[in-house]
TrEMBL record, chain A:
Residues 2-241 form the ABC transporter domain. GO terms for molecular function: ATP binding; ATP hydrolysis activity. GO terms for biological process: amino acid transport. Belongs to the ABC transporter superfamily. The gene is metN. This is Cell division ATP-binding protein FtsE. It is a peripheral membrane protein. Keywords: Amino-acid transport, ATP-binding, Cell membrane, Membrane, Nucleotide-binding, Translocase, Transport. InterPro entries: AAA+_ATPase, ABC_transporter-like_ATP-bd, ABC_transporter-like_CS, ACT-like_dom_sf, MetN_ABC, MetN_ABC_transporter-like, NIL_domain, P-loop_NTPase. CDD domains: ABC_MetN_methionine_transporter (cd03258). Part of the ABC transporter FtsEX involved in cellular division. Important for assembly or stability of the septal ring. The keyword tRNA processing does not apply. The keyword Transport applies. It comes from Vreelandella aquamarina.
TrEMBL record, chain B:
GO terms for cellular component: plasma membrane. Keywords: Cell membrane, Membrane, Transmembrane, Transmembrane helix, Transport. The gene is metI. It comes from the Bacteria. It is found in: Cell membrane. This is D-methionine ABC transporter permease.
Length: 347, 217
């Protein structure tokens, strides 16, 4: 369980002050995977570092498993950090230690005995699938293997919370999905709460339960992943989604798009449908019931965890009244209709 | 070459090795902690103490800016106090050590500088204390750079010790000046230079070997 209340972080002061985080409130229930997504420089890194106090918040409260982190003395903070694992974009393994000794490091720091360390490290290497690499050095491993070692190391001290700082950003897509699968297994089997920051929607889509969107140091959205992917509440959220779905009108059409309708134009709409609407033959009904022709420019169906999401960009061909009626018809059937603009009729 | 001459050269070589070893060991014992301090007390570092960092930096720079030949003469009273005399190899070892401490410290600091800040951050995230970070992360990870630095120090000490010889320190420098230069004996001069070259080559090869052995990158 992680609870951030009114967390702010300011670097510098006066005119040159940089507000990296502003009044961030975030609650992550025990055992869930929470993603924070945002562009570079939005404050993701600062946010995740405020949880284990690698960055000390300027104000606000940070509760991890009910313990207020900001009030701890140095020694207590180090104790608390044993219960918060962290992995990084660039793995941060010690180059002069073997895989085994890297995973053993947090246990050495805690003053564990050599025999206890061995009993703990070997099963961890087994779990991340690297038992045969125990005596190798990080330089001999691939990126994905290095991150697996880092995960085993982060879990060595039996933490309740795992922080993932862009953990898959340096990895190729295939390796990314295998690392994400490992994280999901860990969450599932050990009940560890995971907070991850990323700029990749793919990461959020594949393993997160909830997601927050961060922009200029503020959390601007906080939603179930299914909701976020079907109906983002902010423009930034929509931008991320469209970018992820790679769904935007063809360039040629965008150039002809006019903002307001006129006599010889017809609307171009983006339709988003989820739930029952996905399996209903709405387009053909639309043609029959509203006498509107639909020209589909782009369409896509995505499954986001247990939900199905359909997206379509289409031109509605008909009289002004007919197209208006068609849009009301679609909205009445739980579709989101967004008018992107109007184009001249092709003659 | 007479056996007396041979004994003279052997003795001078041993004297040089003695001076380099004594000053090298003591300078490492004192310079390593100083170098670590210079690094960890920097602003935003694990033991950030900007004022102390400034003071240590200035002291180190002063030590490094005094020409060795002047340092040697300037600290004669201190040398006398410490070893009871200002001539001989023990006396020469005092300025050698003092000159080498800041030298070692800056090289160690430079070696630590090469470590990725991410390694320190990840150790902190594991709850490591500053002492644990120094002993388990910084020094082991920088060991290649540290060995390189100590090799450079030893090589520098060989040449400094020859300079110390010129003012009564003994060793190969002393031999070269007294026999090779003052008595105009080119053979002695040549032998002295050859031995110095061999010593430097030896230290460098040993250092390179140890760096290669410690390298895991």
């Amino acid at each position: 369980m992680i609870e951030l209340s009114n967390v702010s972080k300011t670097y510098g002061s006066g005119d040159s002050a940089v507000h990296a985080l502003q009044n961030v409130n975030l609650t992550i229930p025990k055992g869930t995977i929470h993603g924070v997504i945002g562009l570079s420089g939005a404050g993701k890194s600062t946010l995740i570092r405020c949880v284990n106090l690698l960055e000390r918040p300027t104000s606000g409260s940070v509760l991890v498993d009910g313990q207020e982190m900001t009030g701890l003395r140095r020694r207590e903070l180090n104790q608390a950090r044993h219960r918060i694992g962290m992995i990084f974009q660039h793995f941060n393994l010690l180059t002069t230690r073997t895989v085994f000794d890297n995973v053993a490091l947090p246990l050495e720091l805690m003053g564990e005995k050599r025999s206890a360390i061995k009993n703990r490290v070997l099963p961890l290497l087994e779990m991340v699938g690297l038992a045969d690499k125990a005596k190798q050095y990080p330089a001999q491993l691939s990126g994905g293997q290095k991150q697996r070692v880092a995960i085993a190391r982060a879990l060595a001290s039996k933490p309740n919370v795992l922080l993932c700082d862009e953990a898959t950003s340096a990895l190729d897509p295939q390796t990314t999905s295998s690392i994400l699968e490992l994280l999901r297994d860990i969450n599932h089997q050990l009940g560890i709460t995971i907070l991850l920051i990323t700029h990749e929607m793919e990461v959020v889509k594949s393993i997160c339960h909830r997601v927050s969107l961060i922009s200029d140091g503020k959390l601007v959205e906080d939603a179930e992943v299914g909701d976020f992917f079907t109906a983002p509440a902010t423009q930034l959220g929509r931008d991320f989604l469209n970018d992820f779905l790679q769904l935007s009108p063809p360039k040629e059409l965008l150039e002809r798009l006019e903002e307001s309708p006129s006599e010889h134009t017809h609307p171009v709409v983006r339709l988003t449908f989820s739930g029952d609407a996905v399996s209903t033959p709405l387009i053909s009904r639309l043609a029959r019931e509203c006498s509107v022709d639909v020209s589909i420019l782009q369409a896509k169906v995505e499954s986001i965890q247990d939900r199905t999401l359909g997206l379509m960009i289409a031109e509605l061909l008909g009289s002004h009244e007919q197209t208006q009626q068609a849009m009301s018809y679609l909205e009445a059937h739980q579709l989101q209709v967004e008018v992107l603009g109007h184009v001249q009729r092709n003659v | 070459m007479s056996s007396a001459m041979f004994d003279l050269i052997l003795q001078a070589t041993l004297d040089t090795l003695y001076m380099v070893a004594v000053s090298g060991v003591i300078a490492t014992l004192l310079g390593l902690p100083l170098g670590v301090m210079l690094y960890v007390t920097r602003p935003r570092q694990i033991l950030a103490m900007p004022v102390l960092n400034q003071v240590l930096g200035i002291i180190t720079n002063i030590g490094r800016s005094i020409p060795f030949i002047i340092l040697m003469v300037a600290i004669i009273p201190f040398t006398r106090m410490l070893v009871g005399t200002s001539i001989g190899i023990n006396a020469a070892s005092v300025p050698l050590t003092i000159a080498a401490i800041p030298f070692v410290a800056r090289l160690i600091e430079g070696a630590l500088n090469e470590i990725s800040p991410g390694l320190i951050e990840s150790a902190q995230s594991m709850g490591a204390t500053p002492w644990q970070i120094i002993t388990k992360v910084l020094i082991p990870e920088a060991r290649g750079g540290i060995i390189t630095g100590l090799t450079i120090t030893l090589v520098t000490l060989v040449s400094y010790s020859a300079m110390a010889g010129a003012v009564g320190g003994g060793g190969l420098g002393d031999l070269g000046i007294r026999y090779g230069y003052n008595r105009f004996n080119p053979t002695i001069m040549l032998i002295t230079v050859v031995i110095l070259v061999v010593l430097v080559q030896g230290f460098q090869s040993l250092g390179d070997y140890l760096v290669r052995k410690s390298d895991r990158k």
